[in-house]
TrEMBL record:
Name this polypeptide is given: Putative pterin-4-alpha-carbinolamine dehydratase
Gene3D superfamilies (UniProt xref): Transcriptional coactivator/pterin dehydratase
Keyword Cytoplasm among UniProt keywords: no
Organism annotation: Halobacterium jilantaiense
HAMAP family: Pterin_4_alpha
Catalytic activity: (4aS,6R)-4a-hydroxy-L-erythro-5,6,7,8-tetrahydrobiopterin = (6R)-L-erythro-6,7-dihydrobiopterin + H2O
GO molecular function terms noted in the UniProt entry: 4-alpha-hydroxytetrahydrobiopterin dehydratase activity
Pfam family, one: Pterin_4a
Enzyme Commission number: 4.2.1.96
Entry keyword Lyase: yes
Segments traversing the membrane: none
Start and end residues of each stretch annotated as Disordered: 72-91
Amino acid sequence: MAELLDDDTIESRLPEHWHLDGDEITRTYEFDDYLEGVAFASEVGEIAEEQFHHPEIRIRYGKVDVRFTSHEEGGVTDQDIDMAERTDALR
Ligand SMILES: C[C@H](O)[C@H](O)[C@H]1CNC2=NC(N)=NC(=O)C2=N1
């Protein structure tokens, strides 16, 4: 079981454009059209399956919100930071 990170540690390790929102980290990505966002969400799903660590993804026209938390630990862990970095690497 991964260790929960405290808010200061999270803030210091969050990649650019990511925000801490309660027990979750989140980023909104922007796209030129809806289907680009859908394709991106699918790619995020692929790495989530590879890493077995799954985000909440909200798709709307031109924007996709990605939200990570470690459900079993009840907060943000290294896995969530790692997944944020992997998600950014898709762009
Ligand atoms: C039941 C539980 O969700 C699963 O064991 C795995 C799969 N994906 C997961 N994803 C996330 N974000 N947190 C988890 O704790 C987690 N656990």
